[in-house]
Automatic annotation (TrEMBL):
Cofactor annotation: FAD
Gene this chain is encoded by: LOC107895776
Keywords in alphabetical order: FAD, Flavoprotein, Membrane, NAD, Oxidoreductase, Redox-active center, Transmembrane, Transmembrane helix
Protein name: monodehydroascorbate reductase (NADH)
InterPro entries given in the database record: FAD-oxidoreductase/Apoptosis, FAD/NAD-bd_sf, FAD/NAD-binding_dom, FAD/NAD-linked_Rdtase_dimer_sf, MDHAR3-like_C
SUPFAM superfamilies: FAD/NAD(P)-binding domain, FAD/NAD-linked reductases, dimerisation (C-terminal) domain
Record domain FAD/NAD(P)-binding: where: 7-321
Family: Belongs to the FAD-dependent oxidoreductase family.
Gene3D superfamilies named in the record: 3.30.390.30, FAD/NAD(P)-binding domain
Amino acid sequence: MGRAFVYVILGGGVAAGYAALEFTRKGVSPGELCIISEEPVAPYERPALSKGFLLPESPARLPSFHTCVGANEERLTPKWYKEHGIELVLGTRVKSVDVRRKKLLTATGETISYKILLIATGARALKLEEFGVDGSEAENVCYLRDLADANGLVNVMQSCSSGNAVVIGGGYIGMECAASLAINKINVTLVFPEVHCMARLFTPKIASYYEEYYQSKGVKFVKGTVLTSFEFDSSGKVMAVNLRDGSQLPADLVVVGIGIRPNTSLFEGQLTLEKGGIKVNGKMQTSNDSVYAVGDVAAFPVKLFGETRRLEHVDSARKSAKHAVAAIMEPKKSGEFDYLPFFYSRVFGLSWQFYGDNVGEAVHFGDYSSGTFGAYWISKGHLVGSFLEGGTKEEYEAIAKATSLKPPVEDLAELGQQGLNFALTISKKPQPALPIEVSRSTSGLVLEKPVYAWHAAAGLVLTASIAGFAYWYGRRRRRW
Ligand SMILES: Cc1cc2nc3c(=O)[nH]c(=O)nc-3n(C[C@H](O)[C@H](O)[C@H](O)COP(=O)(O)OP(=O)(O)OC[C@H]3O[C@@H](n4cnc5c(N)ncnc54)[C@H](O)[C@@H]3O)c2cc1C
């Protein structure tokens, strides 16, 4: 016994929501599309969980942040899916998939068959136990990947007002959570093994600016060491963390942000994997013609870099989903996915954006004391990445456009002196139409209020933070 659909989306996160909207725009008929998700709620804007959701006052709560409000599109409530004849199978884990026979088996024992499958299973948070540290089941140790985690974090946060929090990991989840906890008047210590925060994106100079800013908000940094064990009270709650450098920090709350792992296990041995994800072509199609993959789980060709990458950020999830649906519904009209990697952050009144790749030599520009500054990355004589803090809309658009054009750069000192003018000049020169939606990329998430938001670097940075963590523990290194 089972149901059959023309299109099945496996996973009900960000990419699933944007794919559903695109399916309706491309004319899917009622009854043709089904979304199966382990989460009990319709797709929502996951980045809200570490931002608006954690605000001490007027926090964001569903249904306000269902997709696709983050891109200023329609908000798809459960009613919307019903009205469009889209079947939402929620709170249901898919436990196996047979791509040859085009069938899925759910944990409730139902078989669902499809003609086309869109994999949008995202990723899961890595657990401390995977690196040999026990105790993350304690009620005051929190991870942050889904709504249940976010509710748990809010509960613990509320129970330890003015208490001590230890945040493990200096990547974007750690940085976002540290900011949110500080805003909630909790004493925060951020612990990470690298020499500075956001180590895979920030240069030491950029990092020191943000670390000083965080410190001015009361956040303490303990660098170059790692968590080795917890101390528990008689009720099993963590009351302190032990670090490898021999120190101990009191803790009423521990937040762990040590990276993620893409949810590929259902497809191992059935589809080609690469870079820890499911390999797709420029149409987001996997090694099986009837199966597409999008979002955090997909490893796709990034034309700009000339190589396959797996990115872990929301803009990529939204746009890859849209592209896959266009390729499914209008195969003759759709070209290759052409994407400029982009991430951004706003926290404590600060705001930065990054485009492209942070490889090669970094050239800093601007006045770091004025609050408007940045860096370009030059590789093989071309500009390949741009970072800007405190820019205007026009300036952010200029660095995005300049990065997408990969202009040649000969004199690095001269580039540093020109600073933003370099991107502004390049971007004003008449150019052939850009293949990417630069202006769309610069739009923020509606729910991510500027003061609290830390739309930081998923993609490269998060991928890198996983590697960093593996190195950090040096115990059970894995490749993904
Ligand atoms: C707290 C937080 C803050 C973030 N902030 C930012 C930010 O500011 N900027 C940014 O660019 N990115 C941010 N990200 C990353 C961004 O949210 C992800 O890149 C994006 O959610 C990826 O979308 P996705 O659809 O691929 O995966 P997800 O949104 O993770 O969705 C995957 C879905 O698949 C379901 N699923 C998985 N396996 C199964 C199964 N076997 N059966 C049924 N269902 C299954 C999951 O339950 C989930 O619903 C943040 C992430 C988190 C966790």
